[in-house]
């Protein structure tokens, strides 16, 4: 019995590492309490003693053996007591663990029930939302349902794990109970033996005392070692648990932090999106305001230019007449008018040139003298110090100056001096500096300095920097003794500490005499390093001085420049070491520009007190132009005198440009058509106000009463320039506004345009020569070729004096006046006399009925002015009364007025100018008849309004009825002079009746003009929901769809309650079904469905209107016919040229045919072409080629269709045959369609232009590639955006393209990788700003479905005799529509098996941790299992047979392997577990609970040991547990049953016995305990098995709190005899 219990003792090992349930993670982990038994050292010692006892009997006496046996018994008893205590503690811990596990099992079931309830509620909500067609909510509920399903599956897996753990722990409890029973029996037997040996021990107690002490010491040592191991194990387990708990807590904290950060990030992203949306709205609003402002400005400029054109034509005619009058006057005196005018103009030009030359000579002399004086001062300064070597190489500045004077004296054209002239702004004189070509010294501030590349830097700014004594390394080395700043020891200590702190790189505060330094540690000179006017590729250098601004010693270290300046800026800085307060050091900054772009940044330094930076700026060359004055006032000059002033144009920038001086009126020499665009585009947004002031000032100047002159020199020059520009411009129309009379008295010098270089100036003389007395004012402007330079303006004024009394405005311009309107003006009279004078105002007698001056007589005081009132009231008789003063054709009135001064013979005259026009407006036609019009539509009729006046007039149609509308601007507006304005008169009746009304148009002077209108209103029985549909721009072969309704609202004939349909005053339409029919124009791209229908009263019919622009087949065939005809002629021509040696008859026939074909093609009519095209057969490829060619060259098209919808009473089903329904043309409804068709910007060039890519059938898990070529056929580059394909879908765009240039063709690579067997279809939209191209992707995923004939994917080969083999077959069938390539692979032969073998053996781990599917293998190294065939291809629907062979070479019950079926060498389709067992003998027993690990030991049992084991008839244990479930005490439950299988292996070996007999003893004892065994004995044939059924019913005296355990022997007799000891363990459960 002891050996049997000893054999059972290792079976408690599976209780190690029992899992426990963790509530938060829902996973099972190892508990802290593990089942560990005390070490068996004492038992091993006892066993070893027992094994060598026969030898000791020969050597020692019997007393010695008794003492040793007594000691061993005591040790064994002590171990048994310890085992009992340990097992009791273990049992309690297991009870606690089982309670926790059951609670977790209960909680898991509750969670499963809750999840099931939630899943049902979500399914109900999903069904409700699907009925409500809320797809967004359905998607959300589906996602929630999937999450609940996943959680439910997790809870189910957790439930299965908890159940498995519970079963394992209950099994472990049974093992503990069995072990406790064994130990109790052993303890009882030991106690009896101790009682028997007590007497013997008392006798030999004295002799064995020494032995006991030794044994006790050894036992104590062993006990201490055991306790130490137990404590160490417990400590390691606790550390592992704490470490795991800490990791879980850290993971939770990280998860919470991540969730918090994610929420914050999403919040910020939403805020940013909202801000961007607000900014986008503001930008759109500002753009809309700018567009509206631009539109208003364009309209105003257009009206202004029209006024200027009219005024210019009138003044040009007036000037021409004046010139002719002067010419006739000279001819009347007998002189040569042309010669007189020519001499006068020539004399004025010579005088102006002489004055300009003299003034220029004076300026040049002053400039030369100032340069000579400056040079002498600089030479005297240079003599004090030696000049650099470079300065002696070239000529000096003085030599160049004297050479310039010599050239000037000899009459040669002197070269422009290349040296600068500087101004002395300080008290001392500066040294001259000539800027080198690679220097960046900016001279923008001094316009006299010129940047010349052939000059060198003569002298530095600070003398002594370039001497030979200067050394770049002025910082003393650390090993050389430095001279301290002060002479005291304290100063040396301070210096040493400061140096140490600086070397360590520590920045700290500086405190001197209790004051802490705050601020910038070093001041830079200059404060800003500015490289101006640089050229790309050149090198520029600048020096900068850093001055220590702190209180004491400080250090400076260069950190670098900004990141974006490191490629262009290099800083050369030698650290100067310690610097006292006020000391300075130099930094050389080198700039090598690579790009023509303004740069800004800084240079960073590190000082002892902190960091600081020096700003740096690099500016490109720019023009900076300015005038020295904006107003030139000549003052008062008598008529005939001439004077001049000079205005200077200065360029202080480094970039030159071309300039031009011209009067401000010449600014409007421009094209008539783009005039508005030029005015609006010359100025930027900042200069808009300035441009408006220019236009306003010019318009005021042109509206003055000054006369134009054609005889002055500047005017003639302006005309010549305008003619020249007109000739150069080709067909451009030029509008020139001639200069006025003032420009003949003030003009510019001879040179009015030229080039101004960088840092230079230009002087322009302005000449004033008054001809007539009065104030003279002229505006000039300076324009530049560089568009970035704004236009400069200046004004010239002067006063011409004449007689004592004069009128400042000799020409009073009343502009354009209307008949019967009063106009007034004030005439101002001045006097130079020092006495009062009497004035008399006279009007010519012809105009006294129209013009009046008040008062007629007055006195003007000395040196003052007098005002007289002018009243002008033109009558319609003005043309007859005025006579010669009024021109009937031009309607211009020139009325001379006279002011007579007392005691003065010469009167003072002034002229009143006016253009008299009418105020009539004309409406055409004078009567409008709209005819019949339905109340659902409007009729538009053109109406022409003509203005007979020369003035723009405001008009408006007032008192319009509600059913009449006039557009644009609701019938209000301004009509320009002599303009015909077309208006749209829109009539939309509100009721069915006859209309007759008048429209009244009023002008701004309250004149009325009437228009008579008539119409008949119609109320049709049907109406449309929309009468106008505007389709979006639709590409060819694309479709745009719109919907509308046909409504029948006619329900009653009662006209008192609602409007009844009728025509005018006729009878109303009957109530009933009403039919309609849309009459589409032939060959239109419009489809209306349904086009014919009937609408019942109170119902409506849905109508869909589709617009699909496409190329007609006739057009495509015609294009293909023309293309093929041209190709055929070309081929025939080449054939005739290439075969001149052929038969002459064939050649002449071919030429004749070619000539006839060409003649017929050219002379044939359209009817002949149609006949040929009808006989012409076109292939599919040629048709597609012609279609693609026309699609590419499609220019775009806009069609506007008006589709009539006729209405008839009655149902279309009631008509007889094809008889049409009777309808009235007045009830017809009209549907207007706007259909713009455009060419697609992107077309598909591959697969003959098809936009559907069909991938066909593709196996699941595989990928199919398809390429689609797209081409940009538009004239601009397009940026491509792609719609997002389903990220979880099978389609993928592998190479998205960001841009497609004009005419470029790109290839899109599309991939189709199905994950499941489904027909997939998606649309890939290629989005551009010109439109969208949709590609339809279609593919079918075909699953590689293979079915296996093995159920459960487990193939059990059964038992076989060792070193024999058995075979089994199974089948695989291909259920897919694709051929499948397969391969078979055993897990034991895979590459992953090597990695698994590097780990710990599987028998060292618990059953829950064993995942290896590969069990025991052959010792020979050959595979236990083999399969054929290994690889191949299965056709669709085919069945493949496979044969598996099991060949073990030794005895084992745990042969296993895994057979994997690989499809296409990567997808595992089936995993079949192969199992088998091998025995050395022909009998076997199956069933019961496992008591050993399913892994063999690494050692091999020798054959001799096997024989000895067989001879000893070792008892093999079998554990059978029976659970009797009793749910209700009153209702008996079925007995607990188990089965054992006894089998006989079929073998090819010869054996004397063909069957296996079995028998079980102790049947009566088992029946007394409640066990029933059927059958108790029997025999089994070869290859057969027999089942032994075991059932148990609790007896009446059974205690449910203590499990029942009994045992019995099972004997098998075959070729050998085997005995099994079966342990029956039973218990009663109250729940399953």
Structure characteristics:
1632 residues; alpha+beta; six-stranded mixed beta sheet; 20 helices; 80 strands; disordered N terminus
Summarize the structure.
The chain is of the alpha+beta class. Strand 1 (20-22) and strand 2 (27-29) form a beta hairpin.
Q: Which percent bin holds the helix content?
A: 25-40%
Euclidean distance between termini CA atoms: 35 Å
The chain-level mean pLDDT equals: 77
- Rg to the nearest angstrom? 59 Å
Number of strands: 80
Helix-strand category: alpha+beta
**If helices are DSSP runs of H or I spanning 4 or more residues, what is the number of helices?**
20
Shape: elongated
Unreliable runs, pLDDT <50, ≥5 residues?
1-60, 386-394, 409-486, 666-743, 1132-1154, 1160-1166, 1506-1512
In what range is the share of β-strand residues? 25-35%
Major sheet size, sense and barrel closure: 6 strands, mixed
């Amino acid at each position: 019995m002891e050996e049997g219990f000893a054999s059972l003792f290792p079976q408690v090992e599976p209780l190690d590492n029992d899992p426990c349930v963790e509530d938060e993670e829902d996973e099972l982990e190892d508990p802290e309490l593990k089942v560990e038994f005390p070490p068996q050292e004492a038992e091993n010692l006892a066993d070893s003693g027992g094994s060598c006892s026969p030898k000791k009997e020969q050597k020692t006496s019997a007393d010695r053996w008794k003492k040793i046996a007594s000691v061993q018994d005591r040790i064994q008893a002590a171990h048994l007591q310890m085992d009992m205590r340990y097992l009791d503690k273990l049992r309690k811990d297991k009870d606690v663990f089982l309670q926790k596990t059951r609670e977790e099992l209960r909680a898991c079931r509750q969670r499963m029930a809750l999840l099931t309830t939630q899943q049902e509620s979500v399914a109900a909500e999903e069904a409700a939302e699907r009925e409500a067609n809320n797809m967004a909510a359905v998607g959300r509920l589906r996602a929630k349902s999937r999450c609940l399903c996943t959680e439910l599956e997790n809870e189910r897996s957790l439930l299965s794990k908890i159940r498995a753990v519970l079963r394992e722990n209950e099994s472990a409890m049974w093992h503990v109970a069995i072990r406790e029973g064994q130990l109790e029996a052993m303890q009882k037997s030991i106690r009896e033996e101790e009682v028997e040996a007590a007497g013997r021990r008392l006798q030999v107690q004295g002799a064995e005392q020494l032995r006991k002490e030794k044994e006790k010491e050894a036992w104590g040592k062993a006990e201490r070692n055991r306790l130490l191991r137990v404590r160490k194990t417990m400590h390691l387990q606790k550390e592992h648990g704490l470490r795991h708990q800490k990791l879980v807590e850290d993971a939770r904290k990280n998860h919470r932090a991540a969730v918090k950060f994610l929420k914050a990030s999403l919040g910020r992203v939403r805020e940013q999106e909202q801000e961007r949306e607000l900014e986008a709205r503001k930008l759109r609003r500002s753009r809309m305001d700018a567009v509206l402002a631009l539109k208003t400005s364009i309209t105003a400029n257009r009206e202004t230019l029209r006024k200027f054109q009219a005024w210019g034509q009138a003044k040009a005619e007036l000037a021409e007449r004046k010139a002719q009058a002067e010419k006739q006057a000279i001819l009347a005196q007998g002189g040569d008018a042309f010669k007189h005018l020519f001499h006068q103009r020539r004399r004025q030009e010579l005088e102006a040139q002489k004055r300009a030359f003299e003034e220029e000579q004076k300026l040049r002399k002053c400039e030369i003298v100032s340069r000579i004086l400056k040079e002498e001062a600089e030479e005297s300064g240079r003599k004090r110090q030696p000049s650099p070597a470079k300065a002696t190489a070239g000529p000096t500045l003085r030599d160049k100056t004297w050479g310039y004077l010599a050239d000037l004296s000899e009459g040669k054209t002197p070269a422009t001096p290349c040296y600068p002239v500087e101004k002395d702004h300080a008290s001392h004189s500066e040294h001259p500096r000539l800027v080198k070509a690679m220097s960046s010294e900016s001279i923008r501030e001094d316009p006299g300095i010129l940047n010349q590349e052939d000059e060198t830097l003569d002298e530095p700014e600070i003398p002594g920097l370039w001497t030979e004594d200067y050394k770049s390394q002025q910082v003393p080395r650390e090993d050389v003794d430095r001279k301290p700043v002060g002479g005291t020891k304290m100063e040396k200590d301070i210096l040493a500490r400061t140096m140490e702190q600086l070397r360590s790189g520590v920045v700290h505060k500086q405190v001197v005499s209790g004051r802490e330094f705050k601020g910038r540690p070093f001041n830079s000179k200059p404060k800003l390093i500015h490289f101006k006017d640089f050229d790309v590729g050149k090198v520029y250098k600048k020096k900068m001085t850093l001055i220590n601004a702190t209180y004491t010693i400080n250090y400076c270290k260069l950190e670098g420049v900004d990141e974006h300046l490191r490629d262009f800026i290099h800083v050369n800085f030698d650290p100067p070491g310690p610097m006292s307060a006020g000391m300075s050091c130099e930094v050389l900054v080198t700039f090598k520009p690579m790009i023509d772009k303004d740069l800004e940044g800084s240079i960073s330094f590190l000082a002892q007190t902190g960091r600081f930076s020096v700003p740096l700026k690099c500016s490109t060359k720019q023009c900076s132009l300015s005038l020295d004055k904006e107003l030139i006032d000549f003052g008062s000059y008598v008529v005939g005198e001439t004077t001049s002033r000079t205005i200077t144009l200065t360029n202080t920038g480094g970039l030159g440009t071309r300039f031009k001086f011209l009067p401000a009126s010449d600014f409007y020499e421009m094209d008539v058509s783009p005039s508005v665009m030029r005015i609006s585009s010359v100025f930027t947004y900042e200069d808009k106000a300035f441009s408006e002031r220019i236009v306003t000032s010019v318009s005021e100047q042109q509206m003055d009463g000054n006369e134009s002159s054609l005889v002055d020199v500047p005017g003639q020059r302006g005309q010549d320039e305008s003619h020249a520009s007109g000739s150069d411009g080709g067909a451009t129309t030029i509008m020139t506004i001639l200069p006025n009379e003032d420009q003949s008295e003030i003009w510019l010098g001879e040179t009015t345009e030229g080039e101004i270089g960088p840092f230079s100036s230009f002087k322009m003389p302005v000449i004033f020569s008054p001809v007539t007395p009065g104030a003279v004012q002229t505006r000039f402007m300076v324009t530049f070729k560089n568009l970035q330079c704004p236009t400069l303006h200046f004004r010239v004024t002067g006063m011409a004096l004449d007689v004592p009394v004069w009128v400042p405005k000799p020409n009073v311009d009343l502009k354009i006046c209307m008949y019967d309107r009063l106009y007034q003006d004030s005439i101002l009279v001045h006097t130079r006399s020092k006495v009062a004078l009497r004035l008399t105002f006279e009007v010519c007698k012809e105009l006294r009925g129209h013009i009046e001056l008040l008062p007629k007589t007055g006195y003007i005081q000395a040196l003052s002015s007098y005002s007289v009132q002018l009243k002008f009231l033109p009558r319609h008789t003005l043309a007859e009364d005025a006579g010669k003063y009024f021109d009937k054709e031009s309607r211009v009135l020139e009325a001379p007025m006279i002011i007579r001064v007392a005691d003065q013979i010469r009167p003072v005259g002034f002229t009143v100018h006016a253009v008299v026009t009418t105020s009539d407006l004309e409406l055409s036609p004078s009567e409008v008849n709209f005819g019949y019009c339905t109340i659902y539509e409007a009729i538009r009729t053109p109406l022409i309004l003509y203005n007979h006046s020369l003035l723009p007039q405001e008009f408006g149609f007032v008192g319009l009825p509600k059913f009449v509308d006039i557009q644009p601007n609701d019938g209000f507006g301004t009509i320009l002079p002599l303009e015909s304005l077309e208006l749209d008169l829109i009539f939309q009746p509100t009721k069915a009746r006859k209309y007759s009304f008048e429209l009244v148009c009023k002008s701004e002077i309250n004149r009325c003009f009437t228009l008579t209108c008539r119409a008949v209103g119609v109320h049709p029985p049907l109406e449309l929901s929309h009468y106008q549909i505007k389709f979006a721009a639709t590409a060819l072969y694309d479709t745009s769809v719109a919907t509308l309704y046909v409504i029948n609202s006619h329900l009653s004939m009662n006209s008192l309650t609602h409007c009844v349909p009728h025509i005018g005053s006729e009878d109303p339409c009957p109530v009933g079904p009403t039919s309609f029919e849309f009459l589409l124009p032939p060959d239109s791209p419009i489809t209306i469905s349904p086009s014919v229908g009937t609408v019942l009263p109170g119902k409506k019919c849905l109508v869909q209107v589709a617009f699909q622009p496409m190329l007609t087949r006739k057009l495509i065939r015609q294009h293909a016919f023309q293309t093929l005809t041209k190709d055929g002629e070309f081929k025939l021509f080449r054939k005739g040229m290439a075969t001149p040696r052929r038969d002459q008859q064939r050649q002449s026939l071919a030429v004749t045919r070619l000539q006839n074909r060409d003649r017929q093609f050219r002379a044939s009519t359209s009817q002949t072409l149609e006949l040929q095209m009808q006989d012409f057969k076109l292939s599919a490829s040629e048709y597609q080629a012609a279609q693609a060619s026309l699609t590419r060259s499609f220019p775009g098209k806009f069609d506007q269709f008006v589709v009539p919808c006729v209405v008839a009473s009655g149902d279309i089903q009631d008509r007889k045959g094809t008889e049409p329904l009777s309808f009235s043309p007045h009830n017809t409804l009209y549907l207007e369609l706007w259909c713009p068709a455009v060419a697609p910007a992107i077309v598909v060039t591959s697969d003959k232009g098809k936009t559907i890519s069909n991938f066909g059938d593709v196996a699941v898990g595989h990928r199919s590639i398809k390429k689609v070529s797209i081409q940009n056929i538009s004239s601009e580059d397009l940026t491509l955006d792609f719609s997002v394909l389903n990220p979880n879908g099978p389609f993928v765009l592998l190479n998205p393209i960001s841009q497609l240039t004009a005419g470029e063709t790109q290839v899109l690579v599309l991939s189709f990788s199905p994950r499941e067997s489904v027909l997939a279809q998606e649309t890939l939209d290629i989005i551009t700003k010109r439109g969208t191209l949709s590609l339809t992707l279609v593919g079918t995923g075909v699953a590689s479905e293979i079915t296996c004939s093995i159920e459960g994917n487990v193939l059990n080969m059964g038992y076989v005799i060792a070193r024999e083999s058995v075979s089994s077959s199974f089948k695989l069938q291909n259920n897919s529509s694709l051929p499948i390539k397969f391969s078979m692979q055993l897990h034991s032969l895979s590459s992953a098996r090597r990695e698994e073998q590097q780990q710990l053996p599987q028998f060292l781990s618990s059953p829950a941790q064993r995942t290896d599917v590969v069990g025991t293998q052959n010792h020979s190294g050959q595979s236990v299992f083999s399969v054929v065939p290994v690889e191949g291809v299965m056709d669709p629907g085919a069945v493949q047979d496979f044969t598996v062979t099991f060949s073990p070479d030794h005895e084992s019950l745990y042969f296993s392997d895994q057979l994997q079926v690989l499809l296409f060498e990567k997808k595992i389709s089936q995993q079949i577990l192969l199992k088998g067992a091998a025995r050395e003998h022909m009998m076997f027993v199956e069933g019961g609970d496992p008591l050993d690990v399913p892994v063999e030991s690494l050692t091999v049992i020798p054959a001799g040991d096997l024989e000895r084991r067989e001879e000893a008839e070792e008892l093999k244990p079998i554990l059978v547990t029976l659970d009797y479930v009793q749910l209700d005490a009153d209702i008996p439950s079925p007995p607990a049953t188990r089965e054992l299988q006894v089998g006989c292996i079929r073998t090819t070996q010869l054996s004397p016995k063909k069957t296996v007999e079995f028998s079980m003893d102790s049947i009566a004892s088992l029946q007394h305990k409640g066990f029933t065994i059927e059958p108790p004995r029997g025999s089994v044939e070869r290859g057969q098995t027999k089942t032994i059924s075991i059932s148990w019913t609790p007896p009446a005296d059974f205690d449910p709190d203590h499990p029942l355990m009994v045992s019995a022997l099972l004997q098998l007799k075959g070729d050998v005899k085997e005995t099994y000891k079966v342990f029956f363990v039973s218990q009663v459960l109250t729940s399953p």
